[in-house]
Design a protein that fits this description.
Largest sheet of chain A: 4 strands, mixed
Radius of gyration of chain B: 22 Å
Number of strands of chain A: 4
Oligomer: heterodimer
Structural class of chain B: alpha/beta
Strand order of the largest sheet of chain A: 2-1-3-4
Largest sheet of chain B: 6 strands, mixed
CATH class of the largest domain in chain B: Alpha Beta
Order of helices and strands of chain A: HHHEHEHEHEHHHHHHHHH
Structural class of chain A: mainly alpha
Number of strands of chain B: 14
Largest interface: A-B, 25 and 33 residues
CATH architecture of the largest domain in chain B: 3-Layer(aba) Sandwich
Distance between the termini of chain A: 28 Å
Number of helices of chain A: 15
Order of helices and strands of chain B: EEEHEEHEHHHEHEEEHEHEEHEH
Shape of chain B: globular
Distance between the termini of chain B: 32 Å
CATH topology of the largest domain in chain B: Rossmann fold
Number of domains of chain B: 2
Chain lengths: 368, 298
C-alpha cells in the first residue's frame, strides 16, 4: 500500500511538474468544450439569401419580409432575372435563393396552388438541410396565419419539429461528444505515454527488477489519470450546465456510472497501447490516429452515423466512444431511464472487461 | 552467489551471449570487461530476470532466474546502463521513491548509502535531470543500494562519467564489498579491471578468460615493448610493415608491440631510423589488462 501511495504521489508530481502535460490534462478539456460549443457552432445565423420575385404582390412581399426579419436569414440581393440565380451561387456569397412564381397571390387565392422554390447551396449538406428547415419553418408559420385569416380549406400545413433540440442548439450535440473525446484523450493517450516514458527512459527496467508486482505498477500508473478524468468530467458538466445551458435531464448517478465505465475502457486502451509500442512518439501516434480519429469520425460528432454506408456503420459498433456518446445523449438530453440505455451501458462494460483482460495479459513482466 | 551454466541468448542472427558458464562467490567484486556489443548488457538483463535466455540456466543466491524471478527481485539491486532516474524528480524524491518501491525507507538503510549520498545531499532539492554525470551516477547507485541488496548488478556504471568521479565510484564499490554485498560490474574501461577481485574478459558473447587481474597480467606470454617516435602517425605504418612485428596496438600516446623470436628491439630501432624516424624510444613495459585483452581477442 505504501508502495502504491508513493508511486501515485510520484506520478502526480511528474504530471504537474511538466507544464505541457498539466496544460493538456486540465486546460485542454475546457478549451475543447468551449471551442466546440461556441466557436465551431453549427447553428446558422444571418445566412445570406437572394430573392427572385417576379410577381411582387402583397403575399410575396410579406414572405420576403419574414425572411428578412428572421435571425437566420438576411436578404442581401433582389434578383431581376432568373438567369442570375446561377451567377450568385457561383460567386459564392449567397447561401440560398428564394424564388417566387409569377402571379403568386392569384395562384394562392384560386386554389391552383402556389409553389415557392428554395435554391440552396448544397456543398455543405448539413448547412443546406438546416437552411431548408429554417426556411420551411418560416413559410409554414406564414401559411398557418393565412389559413386562419382566409379560412381556405385546402391549405397544407407543414410542420417540422426537431425533437429534443428544437432550436438546433449545437451545444446539445457537442457536449456528449466532447466528453467522449476528452476522456479518451486523457485516459488512453496520457496513460500510454506515461507508461511508455518509463520504458524510454529506462526506469521501467529498474521497476521490473524491483519487488513491485506488475499489477501494482499498472494500477499506480492508472490511478492519477483516473482522478484527473473524474475532475475533467465534473468541469465539463459544470461548464455545460452553467455556461452553455445544456441541461442534465436524466439521472446524474447513471451519467457517472456510464462515464466511469467508459474511463475504464479508455484506461485499458492506453495500457494496451503501451504494451505494443516502445517510444512516446509512437504512443502518441497510435492513440492519436488509432483512437482520436475513429472517435471523431464514428462517434457521430462530425458526421451523422445515419448517413454512413453500412460497412462503416458496422465498424462504428466497435468504437467504444460511439456507445458512450449515445448513452450520454440519452441521459443528458433526452433524460430517459436506464432501460433505454442499458444496451449501451452493457456494451461499454463488456468492452472494459475484455480490454482490461487483454491489456493485463499483454503487460510484460520482463523486457521485450 | 551467482551460478551460470551454458547460458545462450541470441537476437536473430546475433549471438549476444554464447554458452557462458561462470560463478561468482559471495562478497566478491566481479568485473566483466569488454567492448561495446560484447554482450554484457544482455547477460546482466538475464541475471536480473529481465530477459529470458534461449538456453542454459542461471541462479542467484540459489534461486532460478526464470522460475523464482519474484524472489530474486526482492534481493537484487540493479543499475542499468543509462542511469534510470526520474529526471523530473529531485534527488531526494528519487531516493525516497526507490526506497518505497523496495518496501523500505531511506532512514532504515541510510548507513549503506551514506558515503555516497553525503556527496549529493547538498543538491537534494535539485531535479535529477539537472545533475552532472558523476552526480547522477552516485544517485543511481544510492537508489540501487537503498534496499540493501544481496547482489548488486552495475551495468557500465562509469560510462560517460568524468575520471575523478570514476575513481571515487570505484572507491565506493570497494567499501560496499565489506558490507557483504556481492557485486557484478561491467565496464568497457580496462583500467578499472585491476580493482576487481576477479575479472572476465568478454567478447562476442563469450568469456575469453576469467581470473584475478594479477594472474591475467602475469600470464601474458610475450615481452611487451612501448614504442614512441616524433612522427607518431607514420610510425604505426612502419611498425606494421616491420617483418619482425607480431602485434601492434595504439595505446594512449605510445604503441604497444610484441616482436617475433627472430627479431630484437635493436633491429627494430635500426629499421625505423633507416626510414627517417627521429627520437625513437623502445622500452620494455609490463602489460596491462588491456594488452591482455588485445592479445586474447586477436
Amino acid at each position: 500500500m505504501k508502495q502504491f501511495q508513493s508511486f501515485v504521489l510520484k506520478e502526480f508530481k511528474q504530471i504537474f511538474r511538466d507544464r505541457r502535460t498539466s496544460l493538456i490534462l486540465l486546460v485542454l478539456p475546457i478549451v475543447e468544450v468551449l471551442l466546440l460549443g461556441y466557436a465551431i457552432t453549427t447553428e446558422l445565423n444571418n445566412a445570406a439569401i437572394a430573392v427572385f420575385d417576379p410577381s411582387k404582390d402583397a403575399e410575396t412581399r410579406q414572405i420576403s419580409e419574414r425572411f428578412q426579419a428572421s435571425r437566420y436569414f438576411t436578404v442581401v440581393r433582389e434578383l431581376t432575372d432568373a438567369q442570375e440565380i446561377n451567377d450568385v451561387f457561383q460567386n459564392g456569397d449567397i447561401n440560398m435563393v428564394l424564388v417566387f412564381p409569377e402571379r403568386f397571390s392569384e395562384k394562392l387565392r384560386n386554389g391552383e396552388g402556389a409553389d415557392i422554390q428554395f435554391f440552396i447551396d448544397g456543398t455543405d449538406p448539413n448547412q443546406a438541410s438546416m437552411l431548408n428547415g429554417y426556411a420551411s419553418g418560416i413559410l409554414a408559420s406564414f401559411q398557418a396565419e393565412q389559413a386562419e385569416l382566409f379560412r381556405q380549406p385546402y391549405q397544407i400545413r407543414t410542420e417540422t419539429r426537431m425533437l429534443y433540440n428544437p432550436q438546433g442548439e449545437s451545444a446539445y450535440n457537442f457536449v456528449p461528444g466532447v466528453m467522449g473525446l476528452v476522456l479518451m484523450l486523457i485516459c488512453a493517450m496520457m496513460t500510454s505515454v506515461a507508461i511508455v516514458r518509463e520504458k524510454e527512459t529506462g526506469t521501467m527496467e529498474v521497476l521490473l527488477a524491483s519487488p513491485m508486482k506488475p499489477a501494482q505498477i499498472i494500477l499506480s500508473k492508472m490511478a492519477p489519470y483516473f482522478v484527473i478524468s473524474v475532475t475533467n468530467l465534473i468541469t465539463i458538466l459544470l461548464i455545460a450546465t452553467f455556461i452553455m445551458d445544456v441541461p442534465i435531464r436524466g439521472s446524474l448517478f447513471w451519467l457517472s456510472v456510464v462515464s466511469l465505465c467508459f474511463v475504464f475502457v479508455a484506461l485499458a486502451l492506453g495500457l494496451l497501447i503501451s504494451t505494443i509500442v516502445d517510444t512516446q512518439m509512437a504512443a502518441l501516434l497510435v492513440s492519436g490516429i488509432g483512437l482520436m480519429m475513429p472517435v471523431m469520425i464514428f462517434s457521430g460528432l462530425i458526421f451523422p452515423l445515419e448517413s454512413m454506408p453500412w460497412g462503416l456503420r458496422w465498424i462504428s459498433d466497435f468504437i467504444p466512444a460511439r456507445w458512450y456518446i449515445s448513452a450520454v445523449r440519452k441521459i443528458m438530453i433526452e433524460g430517459v431511464g436506464v432501460e433505454y440505455f442499458a444496451k449501451e451501458l452493457g456494451i461499454i462494460i463488456l468492452m472494459a472487461v475484455f480490454l482490461m483482460a487483454v491489456a493485463w495479459k499483454k503487460f510484460k513482466i520482463r523486457l521485450s | 552467489m551467482v551460478e551460470v551454466n551454458d547460458l545462450s541468448k541470441s537476437y536473430g542472427a546475433v549471438n549476444a551471449v554464447r554458452d557462458l558458464s561462470f560463478s561468482v562467490n559471495r562478497g566478491e567484486l566481479y568485473g566483466i570487461i569488454g567492448p561495446d556489443g560484447a554482450g554484457k548488457t544482455t547477460l546482466f538483463r538475464i541475471l536480473t530476470t529481465l530477459l529470458l535466455a534461449d538456453r542454459g540456466t542461471a541462479r542467484i543466491a540459489g534461486l532460478d532466474v526464470v522460475r523464482d524471478y519474484r524472489r530474486i527481485r526482492q534481493l537484487i539491486g540493479y543499475m542499468p546502463g543509462k542511469f534510470s532516474l526520474y529526471q523530473d524528480l529531485t534527488v531526494e524524491e528519487n531516493l525516497q521513491f526507490f526506497a518505497s518501491v523496495f518496501n523500505t525507507t531511506i532512514e532504515e538503510n541510510y548507513y549503506l548509502v551514506e558515503d555516497i549520498y553525503k556527496q549529493i545531499e547538498p543538491f537534494r532539492n535539485r531535479l535529477a535531470g539537472k545533475l552532472s554525470g558523476g552526480m547522477k551516477q552516485k544517485l543511481a547507485l544510492s537508489c540501487a543500494l537503498i534496499h540493501k541488496p544481496k547482489v548488486l548488478f552495475l551495468d557500465e556504471p562509469t560510462t560517460g562519467v568524468d575520471p575523478v568521479s570514476r575513481k571515487e565510484f570505484w572507491g565506493m564499490l570497494l567499501k560496499l564489498k565489506q558490507q557483504d554485498i556481492t557485486i557484478l560490474v561491467s565496464t568497457p574501461y580496462m583500467d578499472e579491471a585491476k580493482l576487481c577481485d576477479r575479472i572476465a574478459l568478454m567478447q562476442g558473447g563469450r568469456f575469453l578468460e576469467v581470473d584475478t587481474p594479477q594472474h591475467i597480467i602475469d600470464h601474458y606470454p610475450e615481452t611487451l615493448w612501448s614504442v614512441r617516435a616524433k612522427e607518431m602517425h607514420r610510425l604505426l605504418g612502419d611498425l606494421r610493415s616491420f617483418p619482425g612485428t607480431k602485434t601492434s596496438f595504439s595505446f594512449g600516446e605510445t604503441y604497444h608491440i610484441t616482436l617475433g623470436k627472430s627479431s630484437s628491439p635493436e633491429s627494430l630501432q635500426r629499421y625505423l631510423e633507416e626510414r627517417g624516424h627521429r627520437n625513437v624510444s623502445i622500452q620494455p613495459i609490463s602489460p596491462s589488462v588491456e594488452d591482455c585483452f588485445m592479445l586474447l581477442s586477436k
